[in-house]
Specification:
Elements: H1 38-48, E1 52-56, E2 62-67, H2 68-81, H3 90-93, H4 107-115, E3 121-126, E4 129-135, H5 136-145
Antiparallel strand pairs: 1-2, 3-4
Helix pairs in contact: 4-5
Length: 151
Amino acid sequence: MNFTPKRLIEDPHDVKPYPSVDQYMTKKLIVFKPDQFIEEAMEVLVEKKISGAPVINDEGDLVGMLSEKDCLHIVLESRYLNFPASQGRVKDYMTKAVMSITPDRDVVEVAMLFKNSSYRRYPIVKKGKLIGQVSRRDILRAAIDLKSTTW
C-alpha cells in the first residue's frame, strides 16, 4: 500500500505567516507626560474621545498608561477627601505596570492576548521606545483584510 498523497493541497512552506501588528498599529499617538496635570489629561481624553493613552518620559520611553478608569480615582478621592484632587499629576494616577508588545508580533498572537485580557490597547515598543499602539479595532481591521485566509 502507498499512503503518499497524489498531491499536497498546500505546501506547508508556501503558507504565508500572518502579518505583524506593525502593519496595523497606530503611529500618530496622543501621549501624556508624567508631570502633566491630571485635569489637562482628562480634558484630552474627553475632547479626543479616547479611553486612554500611553505615558512617556522625555526620552520617549514608555513609563505608564493613563485610562478613563485611572481617572475615576480622582472623582472618588475628591468625594472622600472633600476637596478637588484635580491638581495631581498624571504620574500619580497612571498605571505603571504596563504590558507592551513588540512590532513583530503577528495579529493572531495579539488577538489571543486581547481575548484573554481586559486590555483595549497594547503599546508597541522597540528598543524601549514607544513606536505605536494596537487596539482591538486594529486587529478586527486585520481580520477583515485577511478574510480570504483561514484563521
